[in-house]
């Protein structure tokens, strides 16, 4: 039996990662098995680990690589996934200011639509960053859809009062552009690898614990900085218009590291089809051309349908809200609806109905049923304008973050958010990580991962100086080392600079045997009490149910037998493709342990979300309290 180790070696002044096999004594293996601990040593070291394969994660990885960092992009459901590449829609609308003169109005509108909940400085910086982010996207070769008639009022973004610059992001073009840029930047892709924990050293991120879903192994990587881009919390709900890999775990991971979660109560809920097919977005603009019936068979009033066609997600502030209440009252079966979409309908509606027929084999004019779906989060991990979470080495971007949106969000700004802050977080993370190079102090350090009630320990083989302020890099430093670093990766393929010490995790072999059932129960709870109509009793019931689940998941434990990798173990496709050796940490029931870690994180995010819903006692935008005192 052997344990694969990754060690830093100094050769001609250059740090190179080497992999070596050390025989493990039988005694050590037996002791580990007895202790019920899985040891996971870092295989690789990167400047930056980016978590999430949607727009935000791809942009962060591309920009971090351009800034000269060695980058690993880990994504639970593979790169080019998440809501950004959700197959149940034609693509994504993206808006920005029409010109410089439009910036102030756009900022004011976002703040107004956000009902004073958004962070004004962050919004200002966000809007100013959109044109540059769009230009960068086009420079990557991503072709953006432009409206045939940009002055058509249908292009006024939902909740907005004015036409903006509108662009359409289509999946295939985006994927091609990102793929090329990731490749050129030498970004190493860990497709199917899910972040489950972060190692902290003196309050600074130093490594990531990943679970490789296809190889069913844990993998550890050491790094100088981490960018979280794991998407929103809609996956906590039974009916969700978001991708299955969006497990809503990164919010809890960030909170465990000391980051703040903000505005979690504001989650967009929008209509989607439940028949003839499920999980397909219903374009609200089609309401104008529709007839619909409530649970008792009464037709929905024409003025309500007209009003509801003005915005996609539910907002309690709008005249169309009664339609959402009626839709929720129809339950899982959904509300009956019939649309009359013809050649005379606006371009937006024709695009939707054409896509529905072509891609989903559903006629927009055929009778259908719609129900409320959890859609996109307006809140999440608090970040500053550079994507920093306020925890040294921890950055976040995209839908898992909050502050740039408020109680309602203007349509087309979620994709813009992922683009703008994804890019910025990538640059800032690269600078932060590379800033360690000259400042690193040697010596060993041990750090317990800051995860209360959590069973993994991060151990650093050699630590960096803890004065994080002095570790930050400068622009000049980044540029000076950019070319040699990138050349090294391109030439070698399997050579990686190791700027920080290796990290090892120890994961307790404790698994809850019914994680899947616990997740179903959690989703049922969230869907019963936390969808459109919320009140204190329901939210307290949800909080209690989540606590009970947390206790159950935390208490139950069993100990599968540990085993360690041998030399003859076949390399996984991913590793052999990069010329790397396989992981050192297969465990007989790693999938169950990972599932337990995942459900614990999901319960923590859910608990924080319900707490935020309880704390906000007034109705506001996407958050409706039926028990609010008017
Ligand atoms: C149907 C639909 C239509 C939409 N339409 C619009 C629109 O028209 N305009 C607009 O602006 N916005 C729209 N949105 C919202 C927008 O798509 C998202 O907010 C945005 O794409 C989010 O990008 P992201 O990169 O932050 O997250 P995502 O694209 O959701 O990506 C998250 C990634 O993180 C990965 N991940 C999650 N957790 C982990 C973990 N622990 N470890 C590793 N990986 C993890 C996932 O696998 C995924 O790859 C829409 C969303 C949906 C679902």
TrEMBL record:
<dbReference type="InterPro" id="IPR030664">
    <property type="entry name" value="SdhA/FrdA/AprA"/>
</dbReference>
<keyword id="KW-0560">Oxidoreductase</keyword>
<dbReference type="GO" id="GO:0005886">
    <property type="term" value="C:plasma membrane"/>
</dbReference>
<protein>
    <recommendedName>
        <fullName>FAD-dependent oxidoreductase 2 FAD binding domain-containing protein</fullName>
    </recommendedName>
</protein>
<keyword id="KW-0285">Flavoprotein</keyword>
<dbReference type="GO" id="GO:0033765">
    <property type="term" value="F:steroid dehydrogenase activity, acting on the CH-CH group of donors"/>
</dbReference>
<dbReference type="InterPro" id="IPR036188">
    <property type="entry name" value="FAD/NAD-bd_sf"/>
</dbReference>
<dbReference type="Pfam" id="PF02910">
    <property type="entry name" value="Succ_DH_flav_C"/>
</dbReference>
<dbReference type="Pfam" id="PF00890">
    <property type="entry name" value="FAD_binding_2"/>
</dbReference>
<dbReference type="InterPro" id="IPR037099">
    <property type="entry name" value="Fum_R/Succ_DH_flav-like_C_sf"/>
</dbReference>
<dbReference type="GO" id="GO:0050660">
    <property type="term" value="F:flavin adenine dinucleotide binding"/>
</dbReference>
<dbReference type="InterPro" id="IPR003953">
    <property type="entry name" value="FAD-dep_OxRdtase_2_FAD-bd"/>
</dbReference>
<dbReference type="GO" id="GO:0000104">
    <property type="term" value="F:succinate dehydrogenase activity"/>
</dbReference>
<dbReference type="GO" id="GO:0009055">
    <property type="term" value="F:electron transfer activity"/>
</dbReference>
<dbReference type="GO" id="GO:0009061">
    <property type="term" value="P:anaerobic respiration"/>
</dbReference>
<dbReference type="InterPro" id="IPR015939">
    <property type="entry name" value="Fum_Rdtase/Succ_DH_flav-like_C"/>
</dbReference>
<feature type="domain" description="FAD-dependent oxidoreductase 2 FAD-binding">
    <location>
        <begin position="47"/>
        <end position="412"/>
    </location>
</feature>
<dbReference type="InterPro" id="IPR027477">
    <property type="entry name" value="Succ_DH/fumarate_Rdtase_cat_sf"/>
</dbReference>
<feature type="domain" description="Fumarate reductase/succinate dehydrogenase flavoprotein-like C-terminal">
    <location>
        <begin position="593"/>
        <end position="628"/>
    </location>
</feature>
